[in-house]
Specification:
The chain has about 450 residues and is an alpha+beta fold. It has 4 domains: about 55 residues, no CATH class; about 70 residues; about 210 residues, Ribosomal Protein S5, domain 2; about 60 residues, K Homology domain, type 1 (Ribosomal Protein S8, Chain: A, domain 1, 2-Layer Sandwich). The chain is about 35% helix and about 20% strand. It has 12 helices and 16 strands. The chain has a 5-stranded mixed sheet. The chain has a 4-stranded antiparallel sheet with strand order 11-10-12-13, with helices on both faces. Strands 14-16-15 form a 3-stranded antiparallel sheet, covered by helices on one side. A hairpin with a 2-residue loop joins β4 and β5. α2 crosses α4. The N and C termini lie far apart (about 105 Å).
């Protein structure tokens, strides 16, 4: 049973109630539910529980419009993210200080009206004039710089900068035994290629504790890993475990795609024989009044106030990964096709910049990277190399000075070493243990009874 509003006429249910009584009750309830004037603006009475729902006042919107006038464009359209955010925050404070006394009972709505005007202006400027907050056209990409080998002690590194978004990618090469063991429900048990994405608070000008990876770090890292995986060489072609870590040093949109570009450059710097360069770009969308604008290389404000975040990564021959976040119900096929084509043009532009820094994997790996030597033995001889309880393989590692020896079930032996001399020594020991006796070949050993 729902309680009647205070002062309402109670009407019993049933056929015995007279029509006049019902009309009188309805009129009394309507009188109670009529708009009650508060200040200069009516407040509509809400549902039967008495909750009140407030709408943005037209009077407040008009006052905010008049106050902002030319001030909004001066604060909003600035290529520098920090200066733009600071100017907008100052303008918001000025707006509240100026109009607050007139609408003291509506301060929360005054703040919302300001934010609505910012969103409306950004979207309108793009749709009507093709001008974005940083002054770019809809198909224009921010300035790009690419550097490789920025950290000489690592196995490979690259610094990718696009506007005010900057990603530092580092490659570490390990032996096959360094694969990540997966304890999950999937069929895959081990993973030899890993990409980890870190988004520290200082990248957006904040100071807060560093905690464990969140949804953003895990999701962006997985997207970039999926984008890069198709070009990674097989274990037979490159017997290494590859770990990539991308540190976002500065963020103004599209950091996941920046991590793809930086990681591709870093692998080439490390000498990983990837099949081709991989680049990524984030596309945006603004719709309204029957108009549609697709944006290339969106920044943070366009992501927040736009209708779509469409990430596309790939090589010159095809797409390797994509992800779409939408705030509207859907887009037409023509708009989607146009966005994909625009993303392709942008991706090629980015890859031209990347190729200018490094276009092919280095022929020689870093002096600090491990060297892997692969030899094949008969599977029946594996036990001879391992020895009882692993005694023999530990002795080979100790005597030769190699860092690791990994043996696969098919008889493939991968020797990891920091130099070629120790690897050659370990190889000779293994061949002596597993080799077949050949007629005419001299052998040195101790004869025992």
């Amino acid at each position: 049973m729902i309680a009647s509003p205070p002062g309402a006429v109670e009407v019993a249910a049933g056929p015995a109630v007279a029509t006049g009584a019902i009309s009188a009750a309805a009129a009394a309830f309507a009188a109670r539910a009529a708009p009650i004037p508060i200040g200069n603006d009516p407040v509509a009475v809400g549902d039967a529980l008495g909750f009140l729902k407030h709408g943005l006042s037209r009077e407040i919107d008009q006052a905010v419009d008049q106050f902002l006038a030319e001030r909004l464009d001066q604060a909003l359209f600035n290529p520098n993210k920090a200066l733009r955010e600071s100017a907008l925050e100052d303008l918001k404070k000025e707006t509240i200080a100026e109009l607050g006394p007139r609408f003291a009972d509506r301060l929360p709505y005054l703040s919302k009206s300001f934010e609505a005007k910012v969103k409306q202006r950004v979207r309108g400027k793009i749709l009507d004039e093709g001008m974005r907050p940083d002054g770019r056209k809809t198909t224009e990409i921010r300035q790009i710089t690419c550097e490789v080998g920025v950290l000489p002690r690592t196995h490979g590194s690259a610094l990718f900068t696009r506007g005010q978004t900057q990603a530092l990618s580092i490659v570490t090469l390990g032996s096959i035994g360094d694969k990540q063991k997966l304890d999950g429900l999937g069929l895959e048990e081990f993973k030899r290629f890993m990409h980890h994405y870190n988004f520290p608070p200082f990248s957006v000008g904040e100071a807060r504790p560093l905690r464990s990876p969140g949804r953003r770090e895990i999701g962006h890292g997985a997207l970039a890993e999926r984008a890069l995986l198709p070009v990674v060489p097989t274990e037979e072609e490159f017997p290494y475990t590859i770990r990539l870590v991308t540190e976002i040093l500065s963020s103004n949109g599209s950091t996941s795609m920046a991590s793809v570009c930086g990681s591709s450059l870093a692998m080439m710097d490390a000498g990983v024989p990837i099949k081709s360069q991989v680049a990524g770009i984030a596309m945006g969308l603004i719709t309204g009044d029957g108009k549609v604008a697709v944006l290339s290389d969106i920044q943070g404000v366009e992501d927040a106030l736009g209708d779509m975040d469409f990430k596309v990564a790939g090589t010159r021959t095809g797409v390797t990964a994509m992800q779409m976040d939408m705030k509207i119900k859907g887009i037409s096929i023509d708009t989607m096709a146009g966005a994909i084509q625009q993303a392709k043009d942008g991706r090629f532009f980015i890859m031209d910049k990347m190729d200018a820094a490094i276009s092919q994997p280095r022929s020689a790996m870093s002096q600090y990277a491990p060297r892997m030597l692969t030899i094949q033995i008969h599977p029946d001889k594996i036990r001879e190399v391992i020895g009882p309880g692993g005694k023999m393989i530990r002795k080979i590692i100790e005597d030769s000075g190699v860092t690791s020896i990994d043996i696969e079930d098919d008889g493939r032996v991968v020797i990891g070493s920091v130099n070629g001399e120790s690897a050659a020594k370990a190889e000779q020991i293994i061949r002596d243990l597993t080799g077949e006796v050949e007629v005419g070949k001299n052998y040195k050993g101790k004869v025992v009874r």
